[in-house]
Amino acid sequence: MSHHDRPTPEFAAAVPQPDGTPERLRRQIEFVVEVDQLKNVLRQSPLLAADRRENDAEHSWHLALMVLVLAEYADEPVDVVRVLAMVVLHDLVEIYAGDTPLYDSAAGADQEERERLAADRLFAILPDDQRDRFRALWDEFEERTSAEARFAKAMDRLQPLLLNYGNRGGTWRTPGVTEAEVLARKSVIGDASAELWDYARTLIRTGADRGWVPRADPGA
Amino acid sequence: MSHHDRPTPEFAAAVPQPDGTPERLRRQIEFVVEVDQLKNVLRQSPLLAADRRENDAEHSWHLALMVLVLAEYADEPVDVVRVLAMVVLHDLVEIYAGDTPLYDSAAGADQEERERLAADRLFAILPDDQRDRFRALWDEFEERTSAEARFAKAMDRLQPLLLNYGNRGGTWRTPGVTEAEVLARKSVIGDASAELWDYARTLIRTGADRGWVPRADPGA
Ligand SMILES: [Ca+2]
């Protein structure tokens, strides 16, 4: 198997790996180095614990923690290691494609294409077998074609809800966002867990009761 | 089972969960909210991708990613889901106990006791069964009593090595640190994987060759 057609990615190339590093390990380490950039991709949501926006690496860690705590609420049996792998990997494409805010429909339009190209580029750093395995996990997550993917996606939708609720609004205060739109964007939680969707709806309704998310668009 | 003796932790109590949230779920969500503070615990290591120090949440995510990429190098078979759980949980105690830098022997002296008390307090937020399961995983990681724990610890030691190497020094430049001390502190990698320990030693030796870590303490 030749890897000569796939050069070291630009970021990881800044400090080359030592001579004599076995080829397979070199590619794997270059991937591990390249993805350090996920810590630099900022999301819209402010943290609970500090007055700054969350980054994708922190967010992905929080989802993994949530999987460990909340997996028992999955309506269908899930293989936890696959759910964990999906949440750890799910945002890596944003290193090249950037974060697309949930409530930004314009940016959402070409998001799929941008992220697909980013996935081609990023996962190609890995040895072929891992490239294919990671890409398949990411595709599965995006397409929600398994119980694991549905549960991983539910965590991805529930976590910012917890941040918004704990921040008494957060990105719920984005102009134009309404309770109905939040409910619509979050309804995929119900495809994974009736109990967590019940809880999520209670959070959103309580937020609306308290004026943290508008019942209707005041500009409409 | 009564939970009335265990109140909502202070941080999570700032915005109480909605009335009617089932008791078990309420405790789990309070834990998920409480641990948002891990994003605020700063480590010594600077990131590769930005000119700032890494936080524990980002670090924990990076370890999880490394487990997915590098598990094949474990010398003994490992149950990947248990390794992932350990790296996701391993630094949570630092929310209450703070980060203890690897090259700070004074802070290291009472570290064990402080972290044990922090674990008592933090994991008690969870329902009893999860409290016991998470605590057992953390104890196992700390004591390195299984192949999973040894591999998780190896990732925890290898990751900052990658950051230091990529930063042409990083915390290797802490006064008093020498190549021999770095080798000693990192040798646990060899308990998990001969191949990764071989690679780690090459990184350290290359760092010393290039003057990123002193061969001997210039003050000695
Ligand atoms: Ca630590």
UniProtKB/TrEMBL annotation, chains A, B:
Its recorded name reads HD family hydrolase
Sorted UniProt keywords: Hydrolase, Metal-binding
Pfam families (alphabetical): HD_3
**Does Manganese count among this protein's keywords?**
no
InterPro entries reported for this sequence? HD_domain (IPR006674), YfbR/HDDC2 (IPR039356)
Keyword Metal-binding attributed: yes
Q: Which PANTHER family match?
A: 5'-DEOXYNUCLEOTIDASE HDDC2 (PTHR11845:SF13)
Q: Where is the signal peptide?
A: none
Q: Cite the residue spans of the region called Disordered.
A: 1-21
The species is: Kitasatospora phosalacinea
All copies of domain HD, residue ranges: 35-197
Gene Ontology molecular function: hydrolase activity
